[in-house]
Amino acid sequence: MNIRLFKPSFGDEELQNIKEAMDRSWVGLGPNVNEFEKQWAKFVGCKIAIGVNSATAALHLALAAFKFPEGSKVLVPSLTFSSTASAALYNRLIPVFVDSDPVTLGMDLNDMKRKYTDDVVAVMPVHFAGHPVPMEELMPWAEEKGLAVIEDCAHTAGAIYKGKVLGTWGDIGCYSFEEKKLMTTGDGGMMVTNQPELFKDVKAMRWVGIDKDNWKTAQAYTDANKDALHWFYELNVLGYKYNMNDLAAAIGLAQLKKLPKFNARRAEIIRMYLDGIKDIDGIEPLVPFEPENYCYQMFGIRAEKRDDLMIYLKSKGIATGCHYTPLSLQPLFKPYAKDCEFIEKEVDTFITLPLHAELTDEELSYILKYLNKF
Ligand SMILES: *Cc1c(COP(=O)(O)O)cnc(C)c1O
To answer: Is 13 helix (H, G, I), strand (E, B) or coil?
Structure first.
């Protein structure tokens, strides 16, 4: 047995879409990206979606969209992937690390309120593993303090929490299509908002500063003589090379159609995991999984003898991981680290177990058998 932790699922539909893009001989930023953006906006129920080449880029541009003064502070969970906090550093902002809620492992809202100071400008909740941060409580507080809210939705895709899709509660939501996520484009990401004015410059920022839909000073002469100036472009903002391309979008369009099926299979697997570990002493589910209500990018447990169990599972050909080393413990972020006592200790019990849409019932029984045996 050799059971992978994560694994993307592809079929003929992806190949067919890629072939069509190649037959069109258009593989850069083009019609597939536009179509994928339109479909994603409809899928999550928001006004605008912008496709980029990663969630890391999405998080960078999401903060950049607000043009915060250099040195302002951003509340970020310690338990997340590097990109959430790197986004603050890219923008010359200061990450302030927030501890995790002991049950959900999302941002501990009490610790978040404790660490708030007058120079905080934004908060970046991460729906950890896919489990929702209580946005109905976070949003009114953020509004009262005048903070921007950027949701890191790398672990969720389409889940509805209290009537609203995760990613549409805050000002901007950022999704990931990296190969380990709920659906993939190889690498890719999407940013969404219901405030179009927030994205006024983002299209140009994701494509080297050029946004042909948004010429400004040129408008006067292009309106007068459109045909003669078809070659014209104009730089108004500092842009990055962050665009999604038509090959990635070709894959994304096929994957989006299958996403409900992927999510349903993941839910089924998580339900079987939960039933299977219920009676094993010394093992608890990582978060209070509700697979019937939300979608989850990862499944995991908290285990007393974590290291021994990981080594044992490895000897049986079962891949495991630990998500994540808290950022407040990372050398890069040491200068900004604020005490996140709970998560820095608790993380030593975490094990991520295999979860992907192609995991078979046989593989799952095999994993459960050895969890039991251990
Ligand atoms: C994967 C991940 C990202 C980054 O996504 P990319 O598309 O790989 O840049 C950001 N935040 C979290 C929580 C992630 O898991």
So the answer is: helix
